[in-house]
Structure prediction request, 191 residues.
Amino acid sequence: MKTFRLPNIPPLNKAFFAALVLSLVSHALVLSMPIMGYKAAAVQKEKTLTVRLSEPPPPEPEVNETAAEKNPPSPEKEASSTPSMEQTVNLDTPDRRYRDYLLNVRRRIENRWSYPQGALQKREEGVTTIKFTIAAGGSLSGQEIITSSGSPQLDEHTLAVVRAAAPYDRLPGDLRLARLHIVATFHYRLK
Prediction:
């Protein structure tokens, strides 16, 4: 019977070992890097307080469609008629007809919005839902609180910010609206 012998394998040389270690280290570095496209803002430390603007589910429209609205008027009649229609939308509506206009409204409000100092000192939190109305020319023609946060300071600050952002841009002519009612929810949270 023949005996089986293992071939004589030389020990790993230093160059091979160094290459192996270098490969492992470089792979570990690559795997620990952020994923491409990952926003740097998400990596930053979270802020102490958060103010977030969002909307409740869409309310039922307040528009009573007439036969004229179901059947658009001819171009001759359209030029002579004045807009008399109203529409209610959420600030974040996905409807393309309103998206660009509402994005501009949202930016104007967010540029003026902050946590009210008095409510911050009292550590008050809450969610305020309001409805405000923009006339065809861009003026603020009304506002009301739909759901109170429970804090008069937070509620009043929300209304004051919407007033301070006015006047808004004119309503787009292709919408043929006299007024646009916008429902928005303001979240005041301390972390």
The radius of gyration is 30 Å.
